[in-house]
Amino acid sequence: MVARDLGNGVLTTVLDDWVASGPGLHVYYSIRRQVPAALRLFIDLLRELRPLGL
Predict the structure, then answer these.
(1) Is 32 inside any structural domain?
(2) Backbone angles phi and psi of 10, in degrees to 5
(3) Average pLDDT for residues 1-5, to the nearest whole number?
(4) Does residue 14 sit within a domain?
C-alpha cells in the first residue's frame, strides 16, 4: 500500500532490524474474550508451527 511512497522517498522505513522477513499470517476474530475453542486451538497450533511469523 505504501510501496510507491517508499520508492520515491516520501516515506522512509524505521526499525529495519525488526521487519519481518517473510509473509505474515493474520487472523482476525472480533470478540477476543469469547474465541471459539476450535479457533483458539487453530491459532495456538499456528503459533507453534511458525512462532512470531518467522
Answers:
(1) yes
(2) -65, -40
(3) 89
(4) no
Residue 19 inside a domain? The answer is no
- 11-52 confidence digits (pLDDT tens): 998 988 877 776 666 766 666 678 888 888 988 888 888 766
Q: In angstroms, rounded to a whole number, what is the distance separating the alpha carbons of residues 41 and 22?
A: 23
Candidates 27, 23, 24; CA nearest to 39 is 27
- State the residue range of the domain holding 29: 25-54
CA distances (Å), 50 to each of 8, 12, 14, 29, 45, in order? 34, 28, 25, 19, 9
What does the pLDDT read at residue 19? 74
